[in-house]
Amino acid sequence: MRSRSDSGRRLCALLLGALVTVVAGAQTPEASSELEGSAWQLVKIEGSDGKIHAPTERVRYMISFAPHGELLARIDCNRGSGTWRSTDNGQLRFGDLATTRVQCAANSLYDLIIAQWTHVRSYALREGHLFLTLPGDGVYEFEPLPIAASTPALPPKS
User: Fold this and answer.
1) How many CB atoms are located within 10 Å of the residue 75 CB?
2) pLDDT tens digits along 44-96
């Protein structure tokens, strides 16, 4: 007969083995060296209907592609962090974005950007600008972040 401690050890060993298998199989998001380390500010959003949305202050809409698939953002009056991955040249996916929850002004593009965030499917670099494409929803155009502007910071921990 097995003792209770033998059964407990066996269960712990099985759980530990399963955890090691899961961790070993987990993959960090792959980042494209072309985007990694770059920072951008929004120029405009062109909707699939041809409507143009342009921020009054470009520096209030920034994204920064950090190493290891991490992403930092400023979307008007809020800051956020999330993940990104690019597995094929030109293909891009954003994970959910955790943001602060400040109420922005009425003319803010915050709600539009948050609603479309995870729909981004591809990117292109043309004439020094970054273009993010959302199938059926339009194109976001970004320009390089000026050196004088600071990179978006992570939101404060609560």
Assistant:
1) 26
2) 999 988 999 999 999 999 999 999 999 999 999 999 999 999 987 899 999 99
Token pair of 145, please?
A: 């972040």
CATH number at residue 107: 2.40.128.270
Exposed, middle or buried: residue 42 (CB in 10 Å: 0-12, 13-18, 19+)? buried
Angle at 47 between CA 113 and CA 72, to 5 degrees: 25
**Exposed (0-12), middle (13-18) or buried (19+): which is 40, by Cβ within 10 Å?**
buried
**Three-state secondary-structure class, residue 21:** helix
The number of angstroms, rounded, from the C-alpha of 127 to the middle of its chain's C-alpha atoms is: 23
Residue 149 falls within a domain, yes or no? no
Q: What is the pLDDT of residue 80?
A: 97
Establish if 138 belongs to a structural domain.
yes
By percentage, how much of the chain surpasses pLDDT 90?
65
d(CA 139, CA 158): 34
Range of the domain at 111: 39-144
Does residue 59 lie within any of the structural domains? Answer: yes
Q: Is residue 52 part of a domain?
A: yes
Q: Domain total for the chain?
A: 1
Name 139's bridge partners. 46, 133
